[in-house]
């Protein structure tokens, strides 16, 4: 495990025991041990062979009720065990195909631009430059083959590990309206299990949060995914228990939103905040030098015509770079998660949301003390 000792945050209430354990990023020995564990678990099927850039193998959240023997645990290696691996997996193909289309269009646009600047050259005779290579170091033409396919976004359907009792399907829903009511928070923990920046082309992060109130507790485990220029996605597991009842409710859902839809919302929000004075206006000739942004942001976020800031690049083309405030919204996980929730709610209200919510229930054998 990691060299520094883990830090435990514990709390007991109404006969329930809560434990959140955190530690620094795992070392090489822990990574090797996890890969070996994943291989043993998956055998004889293929196992995950590439770990996320930031893996916190010691981090975990455990919720238990000793009186009934019920234990719920979230751990990093269990989450990775449910990442799709092998040629029959679906998620990595879905994202790669979408990305390939975007990269191919950009490639053709650059070729066409160079063709106009070289009247003696035919479009097909212009050799691709380094800028024409795909964002993940893969040429669009080569994107249909990979030697060891796996879901490189590390998306997982992990809903937590349940021991002691068996979940059963239910139609009962978590009372979200009740959870929005103000209550004192007696215990809170936010635990990141793993994170990967997808080759500087987005982010995939699995985290689990818990809050315990006088009336009960609520858990949100989320895989947050942003593939720049392609999509946003959340895979959520929500768990709720109200003290005094004999059930623990669990809901699992996935929502996917095109990247462009979130970018449009970012442009609108920035325009509103500038009009109301929350954000300063960008004057003529303004540059992004005073506002740091991630490298290669122009390729990562595309252009936002309404609020783009023209700038001179390396001279190869006349593309625009994104408004720094728009880019800041896009990379803000909290803001993006809120927007995804709003867009998903709007789609559900119009019956245009095709995502399915899986619900189950754990029936306790002992009441809260």
Structural commentary:
The protein has 369 residues and is an alpha+beta fold. It is 26% helix and 26% strand. It contains eight helices and 13 strands. The protein has helices spanning 28-42, 76-80, 91-117, 176-179, 259-275, 297-301, 324-330, 333-349, and strands spanning 7-13, 16-22, 54-55, 60-65, 70-75, 161-163, 168-169, 187-196, 202-212, 216-227, 231-242, 247-258, 358-363. The chain has an eight-stranded antiparallel beta sheet with strand order 3-8-9-10-11-12-13-7. α5 (259-275) crosses α7. It starts with 6 loop residues before the first strand and ends in a 6-residue tail after the last strand.
Helix and strand pattern: EEHEEEHHEEHEEEEEHHHHE
In whole angstroms, the N-to-C terminal distance is 36 Å
Task: Give the percentage of residues in beta strands.
Answer: 25-35%
**How are the strands ordered across the major sheet?**
3-8-9-10-11-12-13-7
Shape: globular
Q: What can be said about this structure in brief?
A:
26% of the residues lie in helices and 26% in strands. It is built from 8 helices and 13 strands.
